[in-house]
């Protein structure tokens, strides 16, 4: 898990100071795509250095999405509504994590850890494909 954090720090250092984002929609969901691909490959790799590298890539991709998401919220949400919107964003993002952990843990117990990772990574990739099929997301700059 530290490798994921390292990837996130690398992405934050590279992209965090950007004043302008171009093709935000493609870049954000491209980051999640990178993360999903890394997760999909993990169950097929047993060499520890490769797994560490995949976790770095996973963290890097998720951080790109997170940076663009937070920047976009700050730019697009009116100041008088930002507190409420940010609160709902945090509620949806963090309050539901324990529920996700329970569901994923249960699923891994029922069908196995590798199958769970593969299934959920494929679900991420399908979701990204669906999101990128929306023209306004692809055009979001």
From TrEMBL:
InterPro entries with a match to the protein in the record: MFS_dom, MFS_trans_sf
Domain of life, source organism: Bacteria
The entry's keywords: Cell membrane, Membrane, Transmembrane, Transmembrane helix, Transport
Transmembrane stretches, start-end: 26-45, 51-69, 90-109, 115-134
Compartment annotation: Cell membrane
Membrane topology (UniProt): Multi-pass membrane protein
GO cellular component entries: plasma membrane
GO MF annotation list: transmembrane transporter activity
SUPFAM superfamilies: MFS general substrate transporter
Domain Major facilitator superfamily (MFS) profile: from-to ranges: 1-141
Keyword set includes Transmembrane helix: yes
Keyword Transport: yes
UniProt-recorded name of the protein: Major facilitator superfamily (MFS) profile domain-containing protein
